[in-house]
Fold these 2 entries.
Entry 1:
Amino acid sequence: MVPGREGIEGAMDEQNVIDIDMKGAPACGRCFMLVARFAPQVVASSGTYHRECFEAWYFGRYRKRPRLIAGAPDRHRFQVRDTEDLAA
Ligand SMILES: [Zn+2]
């Protein structure tokens, strides 16, 4: 008798899914999940973040939304203009 075994196996299966088609993907600097190649993402000097993660972190810290610039180098990636905002 192994109580709860089914639940444990289910959780392990979910983790294994991450390995599929994620080779070379960077880990998000905030939630540490891998950032999919075509997911909206922010490339900052401190690392790569999911766009949602970055906005949530930035808003929590600076109380305003980050200025994100798309197309660097493709439309799934954003760069943040943070030098002006940080000085303000
Ligand atoms: Zn994230």
Note: The mean pLDDT is 78.
Entry 2:
Amino acid sequence: MFCSRFFHLLALLPLVLAHKEPKTDQEIETQRALQRAAYYCAPAVADFTAARKRKWAQKVLNVNPGLPGYDDLFADANYIDAGESTELMECSPVSRKTAIQNNTCVLTPVVTEGPYYHTEGHPIRTNIAEYQFGLLTYLDIGVIDVNTCKPLPNVLVDIWQANATGHYAGHPFPKPELKDEKPQVGGKRSGLLSAFPRTEFDETWLRGAFPTDENGVVQFTTIFPGYYTGRATHVHVKIFKSWEPLPNGTFSSPEGSLAHVGQFFFEDELNLQIDKMWPYHTNPIKDTHGRTRNWRDSLNIFEDSHSPEGQYNPVFKMELLGPVITQGLAGFITMGINASASYDNWWKG
Ligand SMILES: *[C@@H]1O[C@H](CO)[C@@H](O)[C@H](O)[C@H]1NC(C)=O
Ligand SMILES: *[C@@H]1O[C@H](CO)[C@@H](O)[C@H](O)[C@H]1NC(C)=O
Ligand SMILES: *[C@@H]1O[C@H](CO)[C@@H](O)[C@H](O)[C@H]1NC(C)=O
Ligand SMILES: *[C@@H]1O[C@H](CO)[C@@H](O)[C@H](O)[C@H]1NC(C)=O
């Protein structure tokens, strides 16, 4: 079975939140096998991302002639040129002379979905912002299968995230008896508060799912996420191989259709700037716990990604949409997933 970590986590429920204990040899080998497969896709991933960025730049220029030039926004050094390759996702070993780093190929391993996923009610849509305030952010997510290095068209990318002040739709308040709870000091939940219960069942903001297009890409419109106690700023993602649209615009997914559960991050330097902007700077924990840096994430996901058996990069590459940051951002990421694998939702809390 592909991810023994999953069963490992399952065995520890409901306490488990982190993965701080040493990994077993088998877990390390599973991750390494995936990573080896991912390296093989590195040139394909680089081409894939570069082509999307070029397309994006054209789109931005066409709608607003007042924006900076193409070269300013997307300098050569920012991406690897696709060169002569006509076939975008041609699968070839890492042999071409490129600046590809070992973490160029984003392989996001399967990590916890956390307590804020809703198994029903995520609408099928690309604009998930609803009426939330915050910095306009486009997320351009590409999905490839590490078994083939080919893009995965028509898989459902399901994302959810916190609002600018760190709340999830449906979960506005802590349990009354935990109103003054302090973050856990040690142990697996170090730095975290208990999950806020779901009390607003109709809320759907900053949640949504949409299938990848024929190039294996999906683009969401959202706001930059805010932070909450104990977690680095992140966006959650699930990938479903099959799903069924429901009459109310949401979807259901059959057993065995879940191919991936992951989380994406942003550079801390960028987080630091956005911390200063309205409404991010009104975050109620700003002066108490503050924002958790990527390396201090309670769930260790960022840290794990940079460990010897990790070496993947779950961080969006960001571009400014206009001359000033307040006009918004576009983030690009390509995920390598194992489309042959399937999972169960494992956080039932
Ligand atoms: C990347 O990592 C793999 C696996 O650890 C290794 O075999 C390869 O030599 C590394 N490549 C580079 C360019 O560092
Ligand atoms: C849509 O319908 C499903 C299935 O009946 C239900 O579980 C879900 O809560 C509904 N979502 C919304 C937003 O109405
Ligand atoms: C985020 O959501 C919470 C809970 O619904 C709400 O109280 C808060 O005002 C929202 N933040 C912003 C910036 O709107
Ligand atoms: C993908 O998952 C399948 C099924 O679990 C497994 O046989 C295969 O080895 C995995 N591929 C990689 C690259 O890990």
Note: The CA atoms of residues 244 and 252 lie 5 Å apart.
